[in-house]
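Might I ask for a little of your time on a matter of protein folding? Here, with my thanks, is the record as I have it:
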Amino acid sequence: MFCSRSSQQVNKLKTSIFFNKNTPSGLKREIQEALGIGSRERNVKYLGLPLFRSRQKDVDFNFIMDNLSAKLDHRFVAELLSTDGGWDIHKLNCLFDRETVSAILRGGAPFGMGQDK
């Protein structure tokens, strides 16, 4: 119905279905066959960020700190922290582009600060 009314088509190669973990496998298979669309696991990323988050936000976004730590010295990263332990947004904006700052802020509080690897 969507395609006929909008004159647009769904690209089935780029489209996936996500099911609740309690959905019976037979029902999943029926829906996939009826729509002609495959399913994916929940660990998929969109624009470099997890599409679904677990209850452990620090685990989901640790890759941001890992990437930053690989590029920056820990002492420098520590200087980007405000006195309350969060990010100093003014300093981040001076150093990084808007997309990088947004990705850092979406990751939540800094993880692993003060820990030697």
